[in-house]
Amino acid sequence: MVKNLSYKVLDIFSGCGGLSLGLEQAGFEIVLGIDNWQDALNTFKKNHINSETYCHDLSKIDYNHIEKNYLKDGIDVIVGGPPCQGFSISGKRDPSDPRNKLYTSFVKSVKHFKPKAFVMENVPNLASMQQGRIKDIITSEFESLGYSIKSERLLTSDYGVPQNRKRFIMVGLLNDTEFSFPAKTHFENKITTEQAISDLPENSVVCGAGYLSKPLSNYQKHIRGKSKGIFNHVITNHTEKTTSIISLVPDGGNYKDLPNKYKNTRNVNIAWTRFNSKKPSLTIDTGHRHHFHYKYNRVPTVRESARLQSFPDDFIFLGSKTSQYKQVGNAVPPILSKSLGLALLNNLG
């Protein structure tokens, strides 16, 4: 890890802290995480023991209060992922959706603190929303504050995350400095689902239980890190009918591989999809009810999902299992965040 803690980070819409974790690994100091979901902040605090958290509605936040009580020594970088349901292709993509305006809270924070840099993350189709007008509006607002803006749509598997997750990243730097996005590190040799989770057992384990095998890949060796055992690995017990249907789907298959009588049992196009063991996983979402383990007849556990999001095994999720799944699915993959952080350090000098 780069030992450079001179750059202090404020993470708003922080969730459980995936973006912060990667930046911390790159050498940044995470001072404060703000979100309106206490479960996620509990997880954030457990895994960022030197950071503070603040639970509040970002659309109503008083940044003078934040500055006085949490950021007395100033802030250098603001990062965050404003809620994206209004932009997402899984929603209606209604331009008048009030959730589309939540980015204004991010803009207000940048205007108030005037950090050296900011990083904003969102769903990939924000770039094309209303033929690009939404992105242009956001860009012009930041440019009016004196920032040079660069934005790209990134595929996380290009950076060593075992998941084909696309994200929109916008980076702003003061004083006309232009950000350079990190080069792809895994354009061809992508980390597969099997390389990510094949060492995790079929059944549940008690939190903290020791590993049952040695690492079966370099990724597993890396992701185990300092962890002494397995956490958040509790399986979902499906009905006998569900289990039997899953068993009919081959590695990498989906509902098209089922007998006709089962093909319409779930009316979504991703129904009954197994991960492909030889490819990165599909996008880890917050529900985890339609994608199944490439080998076992069940949905992935929280730990398996966290592995596919590139969280290290010593990152422990708190709250109910449903809450943990949501925290994992909403997060920015830390390995991608670390790549962005290292690139940002180069720009900041």
From TrEMBL:
It holds the Pfam family DNA_methylase. CDD domains: Cyt_C5_DNA_methylase (cd00315). Belongs to the class I-like SAM-binding methyltransferase superfamily. C5-methyltransferase family. Its EC number is 2.1.1.37. The lineage of its organism: Bacteria, Pseudomonadati, Pseudomonadota, Gammaproteobacteria, Thiotrichales. It catalyses: a 2'-deoxycytidine in DNA + S-adenosyl-L-methionine = a 5-methyl-2'-deoxycytidine in DNA + S-adenosyl-L-homocysteine + H(+). GO terms for molecular function: DNA (cytosine-5-)-methyltransferase activity; DNA binding. The active site is at residue 84. Coiled coil: none annotated. NCBIfam families: dcm (TIGR00675). It is an enzyme of class 2 (transferase). Keywords: Methyltransferase, Restriction system, S-adenosyl-L-methionine, Transferase. GO terms for biological process: DNA restriction-modification system; methylation; negative regulation of gene expression via chromosomal CpG island methylation. This is Cytosine-specific methyltransferase.
